[in-house]
Amino acid sequence: MSPGKLLYKLYYQPIAYIKRVKKAGILNYFITQSARRSMVAYSLLLKEESQAAGLPEFTIYFLTGKKYWYQTAFCLYSLQKVCNSLLIKAIFIDDGTFTDELRTQMLEQFPSAGIVSHHETEDLLNLHLPADKYPVIRAKRLAYPHLKKLTDVHFHLGEWKLVLDSDMLFFKRPELLITWLQAPKKPFFLHDPITSYHYSNALMEQITGKSVAQHLNVGAVGLKSAAIDWNAIERWITELERAEGKSYLLEQALSAMIVAGETIDIANPEQYLVMPTQQKICQQAGVLYHYVAESKEWYYKIAWRKI
Q1: Are 215 and 195 in contact (CB under 8 A)?
Q2: Are residues 253 and 176 in contact, defined by beta-carbon separation less than 8 angstroms?
Q3: Which residues, other chains included, contact 101 with Cβ-Cβ below 8 Å and sequence gap of 6+?
Q4: Cα–Cα distance between 140 and 133 in angstroms, integer?
């Protein structure tokens, strides 16, 4: 185990757990966890419905693994369910925790899916991002797995890629996403109700030399793989952390910097909701819900049952 992972397991993870319990209240925390376990159990019952031949076909990407498979299954199932006149194929990128049992489970539930192993990704990274030329990116990827949403996805075949977070559910046909998938021309992001980059706008714009859009959320993010400047990212990580420290939000900040100065497609926040309230979740009026932060409680207690 790397020093970064050991530090996380022995220090940061226990502290984060104590903070979550205290914030939620002990009884409510354990009620929420019971609801989460029910979601895990039900996720194994979700199965891709067979589709007629000749339907329009689109590919999306998930970085997932053993810990997150139940969320991935619900997200993909909900998307396929509301897009029943389309074939939505997923590529599952191994976050390093795939087992033979999990791969079998994935293909039993979603037989049209593709699976990219950890070893396949490592081979691509060694070819395109060798550790001797990109030591910062390669080290950060191991200590901070969220960076894999960039590094582990964008060297695979495909010009444009739409990457979805697993902790989301679709309740209506996402016309905006479908239109983007049909002919991607600009980067695509969700709209965050707050700007969640950790790093100051002044610093990000000083480093990139361009205007950085605010309120971008990477729950659903579409980028042109060939347009990502990995030499710049190697520098940016060092400069950001030297000036304003390390952050869980680094990947979101880097994604905003990658598209700095560009015209961006941003989803309507009234239809594609990030961190929805309990009331919004119960109303179920939106297209897509991204359950982050405080909305996680209602994701486990309410939302998945509506699928």
Answers
A1: yes
A2: no
A3: none
A4: 14
Assigned token pair, 197 = 């980059």
pLDDT in tens, 112-158: 999 999 999 999 999 999 999 999 999 999 999 999 999 999 998 78
> β-pairing, 288-290 with 168-170?
antiparallel
Burial tier of 153 (Cβ tally within 10 Å: 0-12, 13-18, 19+): buried
What is the H or E stretch that residue 188 is in?
A: strand 188-191
**Verdict on whether the full-model pTM lies above 0.85:** yes
Both structure tokens of 29:
């925390």
Helix H or strand E segment including 92 = strand 87-94
Rounded CA separation 76/88 (Å): 8
How far is it, in rounded angstroms, from Cα 125 to Cα 241? 23
Quickly list H helices, 186-261.
201-208, 230-244, 250-258
Measured CA to CA, the distance from residue 243 to residue 199 in angstroms comes to 9
pLDDT cut 70: percent of the chain above it = 92
Phi-psi region of 217 (alpha: psi -120 to 50; beta: other; left: phi over 0): beta
- The one-letter code for the residue type at 63 is L
What is the Cα–Cα distance from 299 to 146, expressed in whole angstroms?
A: 21
pLDDT score at 10: 54
Question: How far is residue 271 CA from its own chain's centroid?
Answer: 18
**Facing residues of 288 across strands?**
170, 272
For residue 50, what pLDDT is reported? Answer: 76
Structure tokens, 26:
């002990």
At 31, the pLDDT band (50, 70, 90 cuts) reads: confident
Q: Beta partners for 164? A: 220
State how far the Cα of 85 lies from the Cα of 83, in Å rounded to an integer. Answer: 6
Predicted local distance difference test score (pLDDT) of residue 14: 47
pLDDT at 53: 72
- What whole-number distance in Å separates Cα of residue 28 and Cα of residue 26? 6
